[in-house]
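Subject: Predicted fold for Metallophosphoesterase, 248 residues

User T.R. writes:
Posting the sequence so we have a shared reference for the thread.
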Amino acid sequence: MSRTIVMSDIHGHYEPLMALLSDVKYGSGDKLIFLGDYVDRGPDAARVVATVKNLVETENAVALAGNHENLFLKWLWRMEDRKRYLQIDGGKKTVKSFCKPYGISSYKVQAKKCIFKNYRDEITFLKNLPLYYEDERHLFVHAGINPELDDWRQTSKRDFRWIRSAFWEKPQKTGKIIIHGHTPTVILHKDHYDVWLNNDNQEINIDGGCHYGGWLHALVIEGNDYTAYSIDHTCSKRQVKKVPLTAV
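User M.O. replies:
I've generated the structure tokens; pasting them so everyone works from the same file.
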């Protein structure tokens, strides 16, 4: 039986990404879906982007846009320094990962010139990422949808990337299970970073807050079975748990 494997909020953590793909035994018969936030906070954003891009171009993989790709592109295209992106949103590590191979330690115009010159294909890839993907039973998105709309596809670009409680505090009417990331699950669970399932079994959040001491999750969907494979950012801890959900 074919499987769908879903990952989100990798945030520059290349080693856990590769270890988790190995743990789930990802193969050419699987559908691999990334829900965004490949950059910022972690040390290897450039390698994560290159890996995801290669999987999309050569394997049966889909990559969606997250809010942090948008933040990175805004920093790149604007001439002002955008100190918030660099200092608060985790952008310094992203810029360093792209520029260090070329001997550049600046976070200003020199860094932007380096990235434009050497990563043109990666920039184009990030600019063109879709906002959602759906199959017969599931809707995949980075942050969520606007549940107030009659047609969820009219959700704004900002909400697809950024929405939080306005999405997960209200019932959704898509008729599908929405699988998303963006909000670390510890905010919803209050005390742990496991995959979060809402009360009516219609939303699954897989942002395990890897960078914050939680998990990088891979949700494996096989028929009506949902299993979360998890690894921490040091690759020293692992867990595998069933998600108690029956597919619609």
